Amino acid sequence: MFRLEAVKKSYLQKGRTVHALNGVDLEIPAGQLVAIQGPTGGGKSTMLQMLGALDRPTSGTVSVGGKAISTLGDGALADIRAHDIGFVFQHYNLIPTLSAQENVEMGLAPLKLPAEERAMRAAAALASVGLVERATHLPGELSGGQQQRVAIARALAKNPKALLADEPTGNLDEATRDEIMELFVQLWREGLTIVMVTHDSAVAARAQRRLRIKDGKITEQV
Ligand SMILES: Nc1ncnc2c1ncn2[C@@H]1O[C@H](COP(=O)(O)OP(=O)(O)OP(=O)(O)O)[C@@H](O)[C@H]1O
Fold it and tell me: In this protein, which residues make up the domain named ABC transporter (predicted)?
């Protein structure tokens, strides 16, 4: 699903070059549930940007679903993000004035589906995260855990090949965190590839595989 070879990503910060990723080799086959941990500034977000075809490496190769992203134009990268990758964020990133159903449908907008199919797929995605009865609710009328479920439904509605999650439980209490993690484990058992960045060791402990990124270098945690 993901292959990184000798990947470097550098940024210029006040005239100084920062190596956010500094020679990363990594393979994540389809069907894995991977947690990425590491200190602040270590390169975790940069890594998710590479996996999510949000940015290109400075050098080295990143392949997403067999496509080398350095060789693709912006339109092709947008296509990969629209079709193949679901994104989940710490702060849910829902639109407050839209219902749960409408928020999930928004995630399908780039696919340009007929309205009826969009509505059906959004309803099915909400059902798959246990929120059938909340479809007409606004985000402000839902708990944090329910809002994160809506965000997960939005990511799932397009039937992505992989889900990328940046601190998906960072805003939740422990009980809700465990529920959301249980949902990720269930989705993984159904065959979805999931890569999540987390500061929470209890969350990482549930993953199939744990990676650590520090100073732009990756190590496997046993
Ligand atoms: N767009 C950017 N421009 C300049 N420097 C950047 C940019 N994005 C990241 N960096 C730098 O790259 C390094 C890695 O950042 P990154 O956000 O990937 O770390 P992180 O592990 O996700 O940190 P955190 O846990 O705080 O989110 C840091 O030194 C950061 O300041």
Answer: 2-222
Give the pLDDT band of residue 221 (cuts 50, 70, 90): confident
Query: Over the stretch 135-158, which tens digit does the pLDDT of each residue have?
Result: 999 999 999 999 999 999 999 999
Q: In what order do the strands lie in the sheet with 33-37?
A: 85-89, 162-166, 193-197, 33-37, 209-214, 217-221
Atom of ligand 1 nearest to the CA of 197: 22
Alpha carbon distance 183, 47 (integer Å): 23
Query: Is 216 a pocket residue for ligand 1 (Cβ < 6 Å)?
Result: no
Q: Is the CB of 20 under 6 A from ligand 1?
A: yes
Query: Looking at this predicted complex, what is its ipTM?
Result: 0.94
For tokens 């590839």, what's the residue? Answer: 193
Q: Mind giving me the DSSP string for 30-94?
A: TT-EEEEE--TTSSHHHHHHHHTTSS--SEEEEEETTEEGGGS-HHHHHHHHHHTEEEEETT---
Cβ of 46 below 6 Å from ligand 1? yes
Tokens for 46? Answer: 């940069």
